[in-house]
Amino acid sequence: MTGRVAVVGGGLAGITAALAVAETGRPVTLYEARPRLGGATHSFQRDGLTVDNGQHVFLRCCTAYRSLLARLGSAGHVSVQPRFDIPVLTPDGRYGRLRRGRLPGPFHLLPALAGYSLLTPADRLRAVRAAVALGRADPADPALDAVDLDGWLAGHGQRGPARRLLWELFAVAALNIGMDQAAVGPAAMVFRTALFGRADAADIGIPTAPLSDLHAAAAQAAIEARGGQVRLSAKVKAIEPGPTVLLDGVREEAAAVVVATPHQQTAALVPEEAAPDRDEWSGLGASPIVNVHVVYDREVTDLPFAAVVDSPVQWVFDKTATGGLDHGQYLAVSVSAAGDWIDVPTSGVREAFIPALERIFPAARDAHVVDLFVTRERCATFRQGPGSGALRPPAATRWPGLYLAGAWTDTGWPDTMEGAVRSGLTAATLVRRHLDRDRSS
């Protein structure tokens, strides 16, 4: 057995695990099947435009992810709001705003809900009560893993306009699943941590550089600078006793292995002896995200981003600067829980979203659409529905030296960048303990 640690999968979980191991001075090799790092967060070029495959945001409370950015030297390439502030647009021209107050947590968001003009005063009061109740719920309570969010909210008086104009806004974006299919547990975690934690916990952070610069290029440089290796286009076929990684007939022994791939791939890589429940992971399923990219010949909005209700547009972001566009405006529309759109041809997407954007941004009616294209992530997250919490495995397997990472594992977080990073840190900690035990025995 060599002293080298193998990390399989170059998404955020694998990047984090490899970097954390390298930072301890131990040799590590990161294997990625694709010719790039970054996993579900990457960029590509299209006619001189730099395009992120999807819009990724984070919150100030995402401390592990923000720490990773700092260690990668990428912290200067994100922008975090000084104060939680979301403009909410409607197709009929109404305008709402959710902005945190200056009270200390957990009372800071009560003024935002109380002043949310898209709801009636009575609906706002009921929403405050429901939000407080959700913030008090224990995300780790197994009973909440069995309850759907829609039913829970209905039982707390959240129906009709409140459901449509408030709860869907946050829940669908945070969990990437419809509220009638979402489990209460992960929703409670989001509200408890982000919305009812520290006063600044929910302040929104957005990349100001392409994702490939933010994560992939910076990660490879950081790992290699610490003595690690990054092997791209290196597809691991199986994990064998030892532990050993198998690549196209070549076996490479390792002191420890971290498998940081999506649950479908991990189940195929990890032996049943190491993870007897691996066949159950398929029950986590997959939930898609679709992004609609629209380039106009002129500016149609001065908002950096906005949430939208009663529209196929859910969230829209100004990507002009990040994309490197010199003239006009580049908007990216992010659609979560996008099962209805994932297989719609681009022509059909255009027919629906261009008029929708014109209703939201009247200036778009006089603008020319220079380009429109769609990016689709069929397996953007697992389906965070009732019962999914019980299927998420811990980082440790039954084989000493073999560990799991990924936002789908039991991180305590929903399937997010923060969850992915936390999983990588957990796996790296277990690797370190395992190697320390071997060294002392």
**Overall pLDDT confidence:** 93
- Strand fraction band? 15-25%
Strand order of the largest sheet: 8-7-16-17-18-15-19
Number of helices in the DSSP assignment:
14
CATH class of the largest domain: Alpha Beta
What separation lies between the terminal Cα atoms? 15 Å
Apparent shape: globular
Number of strands: 20
Q: Remind me, CATH topology of the largest domain?
A: FAD/NAD(P)-binding domain
| Largest pleated sheet | 7 strands, mixed
CATH superfamily of the largest domain: FAD/NAD(P)-binding domain
Report the helical percentage: 25-40%
The total tally of domains equals: 3
Low-confidence stretches: none
The helix/strand class is: alpha/beta
CATH architecture of the largest domain: 3-Layer(bba) Sandwich
Radius of gyration, CA atoms, in whole angstroms: 22 Å
Structure write-up:
The chain has 441 residues and is α/β, with parallel strands linked by helices. The protein folds into three domains: 5-41 and 211-284 and 388-440, FAD/NAD(P)-binding domain; 99-195, no CATH class; 287-381, Polyamine Oxidase, Chain A, domain 2. It is built from 14 helices and 20 strands. The protein has a seven-stranded mixed sheet. The protein has a five-stranded parallel sheet with strand order 10-2-1-14-20, with helices on one face. Strand 7 and strand 8 (95-99) form a beta hairpin. The longest helix is centred in the last third of the chain and has 24 residues, at 417-440.
Give the helices and strands, then pairings.
Elements: E1 5-8, H1 12-23, E2 28-31, E3 43-46, E4 49-52, E5 58-59, H2 63-72, E6 78-80, E7 85-89, E8 95-99, H3 110-114, H4 121-136, H5 142-145, H6 149-155, H7 160-175, H8 184-195, E9 204-207, H9 211-225, E10 229-231, E11 238-240, E12 244-247, E13 250-253, E14 256-259, H10 263-269, E15 287-296, E16 305-308, E17 315-318, H11 320-323, E18 329-335, H12 346-360, E19 369-381, H13 388-391, E20 402-404, H14 417-440
Parallel strand pairs: 1-2, 1-14, 2-10, 7-16, 14-20
Antiparallel strand pairs: 3-4, 5-9, 6-9, 7-8, 11-12, 12-13, 15-18, 15-19, 16-17, 17-18
